[in-house]
Amino acid sequence: MKLFVPLLTAVLLSWTALHAAAADDKPAPAANKAAKPDLVQGEAKYTAVCAACHGADGNSTVPAQPRLSQQHPEYLVKQLAEFKSGKRANPIMQGFAATLSDDDIRNIAWWVAGKQAKAGFAKDKALVALGERIYRGGVPDRQIAACAGCHSPNGAGIPAQYPRLSGQHADYTAAQLVAFRDGVRKNSVPMADVAAKLNDREIRAVADYIAGLR
């Protein structure tokens, strides 16, 4: 019975976070357009605007630049639209997004989403167990929901709702969690709530664990 109570608490926390996030992380309006994405135009625009930082096929090799390949296109549309509107702050990305039309955004998102993601790896053996515990079970006594509740046990996420995390650079994931925690990134209330409860060591641990998911 003693083991059952923490497990039940973790499940309830994850369920609560899942439903709270659903209202906050709806796809941007552009994602709901009926027009079929033009993948030829998407590749051309991606190559011209995005490839220098994110890699020719979305598999960035720079730890600070996120991998975009196989990311849910609805999520990519939402983020680009919010960079463009200023809801998500990043001077570099805001500058690039400002040059893109809604059609460009949709075409880019669907094109890079179709590229095969390369596997990542966890590197910090001293933290991997802690990262796994947080990702899979949360921290019930501190009201921290399990990441897997929204992003799925293998980090695949849920299309149109929650982003794919598996294989993402640990440096990038950690930077985003810190940005959510410190109020720099403000475009997801549920993520800000979760990140606010994590310390630096926990952030490094869960980010490194995520990098090795597949």
Summarize the SSE layout with pairings:
Blueprint: H1 4-24, H2 39-49, H3 51-54, H4 73-85, H5 91-97, H6 102-113, H7 128-137, H8 148-151, H9 170-181, H10 189-195, H11 200-211
Structure description:
By secondary structure, the protein is mainly alpha-helical. It folds into two domains: 4-25 and 119-211, Cytochrome c-like domain (Cytochrome Bc1 Complex, Chain D, domain 2); 29-113, Cytochrome c-like domain (Cytochrome Bc1 Complex, Chain D, domain 2, Orthogonal Bundle). It is 53% helix and 0% strand. The protein has eleven helices and no strands. The chain has helices at residues 4-24, 39-49, 51-54, 73-85, 91-97, 102-113, 128-137, 148-151, 170-181, 189-195, 200-211. Helix 4 (73-85) crosses helix 5. The longest helix has 21 residues, at 4-24. The radius of gyration is 17 Å and the shape is globular. The two termini are 33 Å apart. Mean pLDDT is 89; it is low at 1-23.
The counted number of beta strands is 0
Q: Could you state the CATH homologous superfamily of the largest domain?
A: Cytochrome c-like domain
- From the 3D coordinates, which CATH architecture of the largest domain would you assign? Orthogonal Bundle
How is the main sheet built?
Answer: none
The radius of gyration is: 17 Å
The assigned structural class equals mainly alpha
CATH level-3 fold name of the largest domain: Cytochrome Bc1 Complex, Chain D, domain 2
Net shape: globular
Tally of structural domains: 2
Distance between the termini: 33 Å
Model regions low in confidence, pLDDT < 50 over at least 5 residues = 1-23
Give the helix level as a range of percent.
40-55%
* Number of helices in the DSSP assignment: 11
Overall average residue pLDDT: 89
The topology string of helices and strands comes to HHHHHHHHHHH
